[in-house]
Structure formats: structure tokens, C-alpha cells
Amino acid sequence: MAITYQVIRQAAHDLYGWSLKKVPDDTQKALAEAEKNETGEASRKTLQFMQAAARAAETQDRHACSDAGFPTYFVKIGTKLTLDGDIRRAFVDGFADLVETVEPPILKFITHPLTLERSYEGKDMPILSFDVIDGADYMEITCSPKALGSGRWADLKVFSYPKIAEIEAYFMDCVLKAGSQHCPPVIIGMGIGGSFDHAAKMAKLATLRKIGTKHSDPMIAAMEERLLAAVNKTGFGPMGTGGDTTALAVHVDYAHGHGFVPVAVCFNCWINRRTALRIDNDGKVTRLE
User: Fold this and answer.
1) Residue 227 CB burial class (10 angstroms; 0-12, 13-18, ≥19)
2) Rounded to an integer, what distance in angstroms lies between the CA atom of residue 267 and that of residue 107?
3) How far apart are CA 213 and CA 250, in angstroms?
4) Taking phi first (over 0 means left), then psi (-120 to 50 degrees means alpha), and beta for anything else, what does residue 194 get?
5) Which of 27, 148, 163, 215 gives 220 a disulfide partner, CB atoms 3.0 to 4.6 angstroms apart?
6) What is the pTM of this model?
7) Nearest CA to 31 among 160, 183, 223?
8) Burial status of residue 223 (CB atoms within 10 A of its CB: 0-12, 13-18, 19 or more)
């Protein structure tokens, strides 16, 4: 058996469609917890509205946000599986299928970076990232569409032999620069080290970690806790209404590298779009979230 073009095409279609109408369970739980701890009436009502919108999207087959963004897929391929067909093409065609069939329809958010012309397709679209899983006979695909609120305020800076305090100060500069324009409460990812591109990938992947899970390295876990507390003292609050909850989580990851240290920071808006599935080598598909 092999994982075919058609199976992956359908998976790409389904993952993007699910992400538009499903706020992840851990995110809904975090929003509920934040509501309990909010001291401001306006911010508490905003969190209540978000939870109601999340429920309505799921139960009434609605989009959680009018900005559908564009799809990004993280693909992990087991080294023992077999592929049959044009895999990259399957993602392109699956996205096109979604555009043709999704209800309600989505707007043309795929934008040429120079002419600003909008479309439903474009060069290198969808954004794909591939990795391998040693010894596995399955594939895992995660879809995390990027919209304006979750994508615009990302940043990256390259340091030389930085101290931890410098990295954390830069992180907070990014948070203050973004203010409430990324649709808080957000999930913030930070990638430290490696190369320029790897730091950005780590930051993005860090936002996909489930809320409530700590980094395995105690030093990094302590940094996450320290930064989350600092972010929530800024007072931007849910959708900028003020209050105690500007971020639901701060997730950090790192990689060894050279003395130059890239640091990337990115945000996921309160909807925290994230869907995933697994495809076994016999073609069986299991939705993970």
C-alpha cells in the first residue's frame, strides 16, 4: 500500500476547512480560564463573546473569523511509508478544492507581494514545510492558516552572543509594538538560535504546542512563565479592551548554533487555528484535532 495523491489532496482540503470553523479545545478551555481571572467587565464580556463565537462556528457551521488567511501545512513523513503521486501538487489542488466548495465562500486573500493583486492561488502557495519521522510508517499533517492578525506582527532579529535579558527585552519590544493589533488574547511563539530560517520555523511551531504544556528544559519553561506574566501586565487585554489577558500562552524553543543568535517572535490570534491528522501507510486517515 502507499499514501496516494488523492488521499493527501482530500486531507489538505479537509484540514483547511476544519481550521476555519473549529477553535482548538485547549484554546477554548484557556479562554474560559481567562474569563474567570479577568477583573475588568469589558474584557470579561469580550472573552465571553469569543467563547460564544467559537461554539457558534462549530455547531452552526460558520467561520470563526471573516479573514480566512492562507493555508500553511507542516508535514512530517515517516521514513517507512510509501508515497504514490505528486505530493506537493496534492496540497495545491486540495487548497483549490476548498476554495471551490467552502461555505460560506472565502475572499481572495492570496496577495502578490509586489503588485498587491489578489487571487485564490499564487507562487509557493500553500506554504509547505516538510520534516521526517524516523522509523514511522505514517504521515502527520498540521494546518495553521495565517491571517493578518496572526501574521503581520511577527519579527526577527539576529544577535551576537546575547544575554538572556537582551532576548527577553527584544521579545517584549515585539509585544509592545504589536499592541492589540494581533487580536488578543494571543499565543506567542519564540525561536532562539540555529539559523535565520530555523529560528522562524521554531517560533511558528512553538505557537502550535498545546496550551498548558511546558517546555522540557526547566530554563526554557521558566522563561515562558516569566514572559507570559510580563505580557499580561501590559494591560492590552482581550481585543484591546484592557484587562489581565493579553496572551493565553508563551511558548519558546531553541536550537544550538554559532555565536550569532537569531531570535524570532510570532503570534497566533485568539482563534489559534490549528488542525491536524494522521495518514497511515494503508491510507487510513485519523483526525488528531
Assistant:
1) buried
2) 22
3) 10
4) left
5) 215
6) 0.95
7) 183
8) buried
Place of cell 507581494: 113
Question: Among 270, 286, 285, which Cα is nearest to 57's?
Answer: 270
pLDDT at 146: 83
How far apart (Å, rounded) are the C-alpha atoms in residues 46 and 25? 18
Q: Give the whole-angstrom CA distance, residue 269 versus residue 149.
A: 6
Q: What is the pLDDT of residues 114-129, one digit of tens each?
A: 999 999 999 999 999 9
For residue 5, the one-letter residue type is Y
Which residues neighbour 110 within 8 Å (Cβ) at sequence distance 6 or greater?
A: 70, 118, 119, 120, 121, 122, 125
Phi and psi torsions of 161, nearest 5°: 45, 55
Tell me, what's the pLDDT at 213? Answer: 95
